[in-house]
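To whoever is on call:

I kicked off a structure prediction for a single chain this morning and the downstream step that reads the tokens threw a length-mismatch warning. I double-checked the sequence; it's 275 residues and nothing unusual in it as far as I can see. Pasting both halves so you can look.
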Amino acid sequence: MKYKITKRAHRVHSTAHRIKAVETFTSNSGEIVKAGDLGGFIESDWNLSHQGTCWIYDDAIVLGNAQVFGDATVYGNAEVFGHAQVFDNAQVFDNARLSGHAQAFGQSKVSDRVMIFGSAELFGHAIATEDAQLSGHAKAFGQSCIVEHANLRDNCYIFGNAHIGGHAYISHNAHIFEEACIEGDVVVSGHTQILGHVHLIGMANMINGKWDTQPLYIQGSNDAMMVCGTDLIAIGMKVQSFKFWKQNYKSILKKQHYNPQAIVEYGKYLKLILT
């Protein structure tokens, strides 16, 4: 037995009581939990495993059928309830909330005021912070970073080193990965894939791989690409019509010393914009 449940009830959730360590161990954060130390709140032994180094600190609370196990930690004022699970080396802290059948595992971190609910999952080395939300069957993994007011839902996948921020809204079966960065008021939905070094900022709406509203800015591996008019695209300092770029981008970029890989990359960006 790693801990016992005390008689100190939570001030709001009276069925939850504070825990007290009965043995000394080191949590995955490197902090030593000593026998006699008080922890957070649980309703029953179901909520926190006696195996591993998992622990609940501070005023964090785990309720209902929710579980914390493995070497996971929950601390601050975080709340885990419903059938949510936090395991492996995951960390949930600050005022973050997990509910429904949500899961945080691997080396993932959930902080600030993040809400993860439904059957959403955060794993690998993914980070969700600030006011981000994940719901439905959304998955964020790899080294992905979900920040600010980003909203992930349905069956979308965010992975690789993708960064989702601003008020970005990603839904349905959208996949965003590799080095892609989505910020601002961008909406991506349907069966859309965004990858590579794409950097979308501002107001853009992509549904099923087609732009409903044009993206303002794409940062490629060489120059930035901007839609700067109803029929104008700028790559670096060169501004031309949609038609011109479609017909001549390979020769123009070659003259500007783009390597073959970069030419293919910018061809994909043009295809996204012109679709």
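Update from on-call: the warning came from a stale cache, not from the record. Cleared it. Sanity check on the structure: The mean pLDDT is 90.
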